[in-house]
């Protein structure tokens, strides 16, 4: 087993039993309507991320972001006016067995019909770029997801990047790359005839985490040997400190993203919701 898989994961167990599924589904559109559901819907409306007849592959990593996104897509499919199909897609890059087990158990409990496929990405990335495998690992994982979504006949792939991910990416592009840039809510991969959509882009990580904690789902802490020692982690911690010293820093940076005419961002239709 590759060292990227770790020696197992620390599973942070909740102090209470998991909430009943019906209560979880109800709270998504009731209790957390303001902070997650309404912002999910706003992104979809503003950037026209979901359209009639779409077949959307929802990428599931097993983390709080992708699980909440999956449940919100199910609620949208159940209650929305637009008709579309969903495939819940997870890739096993060579996980330690307890990570995969927890992923499968959480999806089963949440009634998320998971399609999971195996790869040897951890092994390959570890061999090719042993000292700094992050770039190679991320690139190969994206490629595997794109290929599987195409194979399953999906025209869109939903990714769980949220508000904080966008701000961190903007920050990293500016300070490490010397450019103004950020991933887009929707982008097109012509070689795959596939759209990448990010409906969580308005959702703050703290609100997503609060929802996950309320549902009392077990959380896996990554044991990747480079986790916590990356440029993204440094950017995340620095932004946290800046936001403490200068409240509203992250919101102002996100406003700059929205109004900065960044290359690749689709035209936005402002919704009132």
What do you see in this structure?
This protein has ten helices and eight strands. The chain has about 270 residues and is of the alpha/beta class. It has a single domain, classed as HUPs (Rossmann fold, 3-Layer(aba) Sandwich). It has a six-stranded mixed sheet with strand order 4-3-2-5-7-6, sandwiched between helices. The longest helix is centred in the middle third of the chain and has 18 residues, at about 135-150.
**Largest sheet properties:** 6 strands, mixed
Strand-residue proportion: 5-15%
SSE succession: EHHEHEHEHHEHEEHEHH
Report the span from N to C terminus: 48 Å
The outline comes out as globular
Count of extended strands? 8
CATH structural class:
Alpha Beta
Structural class: alpha/beta
Cα-atom radius of gyration? 18 Å
Side-by-side strand order of the widest sheet: 4-3-2-5-7-6
| Annotated CATH homologous superfamily | HUPs
Main attributes of the structure:
8 strands, two-stranded antiparallel sheet, 10 helices, 13% strand, six-stranded mixed β-sheet, Rossmann fold, 273 residues, alpha/beta
Topology:
Blueprint (H helix, E strand, L loop, with lengths): L9 E3 L8 H9 L3 H14 L8 E5 L4 H16 L5 E8 L4 H13 L4 E5 L2 H8 L5 H18 L4 E3 L4 H13 L10 E4 L4 E4 L7 H11 L3 E3 L9 H15 L3 H11 L14
Précis, in short:
By secondary structure, the chain is an alpha/beta fold. About 45% of the residues lie in helices and about 15% in strands. α5 (about 120-130) runs antiparallel to α6 and α7 packs across α9 (about 230-245).
């Amino acid at each position: 087993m590759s060292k990227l898989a770790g020696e197992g994961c620390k599973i942070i167990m909740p102090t209470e039993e998991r909430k009943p599924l019906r209560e979880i589904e109800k709270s998504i559109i009731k209790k957390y309507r303001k902070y997650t559901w309404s912002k999910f819907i706003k992104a979809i409306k503003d950037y026209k991320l979901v359209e009639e007849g779409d077949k959307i592959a929802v990428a599931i990593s097993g983390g709080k972001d992708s699980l909440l996104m999956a449940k919100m897509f199910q609620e949208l499919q159940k209650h929305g006016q637009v008709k579309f199909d969903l495939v819940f897609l997870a890739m096993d890059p060579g996980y330690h067995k307890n990570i995969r087990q927890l992923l499968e158990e959480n999806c089963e409990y949440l009634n998320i019909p998971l399609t999971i496929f195996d790869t040897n990405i951890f092994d390959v990335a570890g061999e090719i770029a042993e000292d700094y495998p992050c770039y190679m690992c991320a690139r190969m994982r994206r490629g595997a997801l794109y290929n599987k979504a195409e194979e399953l006949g999906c025209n869109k792939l939903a990714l769980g990047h949220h508000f904080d991910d966008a701000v961190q990416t903007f920050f990293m592009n500016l300070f490490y790359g010397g450019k103004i840039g950020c991933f887009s809510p929707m982008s097109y991969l012509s070689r795959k005839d596939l759209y990448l959509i990010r409906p969580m882009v308005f959702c703050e990580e703290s609100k997503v985490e609060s929802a996950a904690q309320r549902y009392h789902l077990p959380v896996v802490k990554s044991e990747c040997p480079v986790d916590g020692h990356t440029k993204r982690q440094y950017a995340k911690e620095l932004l946290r400190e800046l936001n403490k010293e200068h409240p509203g820093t992250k919101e102002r940076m996100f406003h700059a993203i929205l109004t900065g005419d960044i290359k690749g961002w689709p035209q936005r239709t402002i919704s009132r919701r």
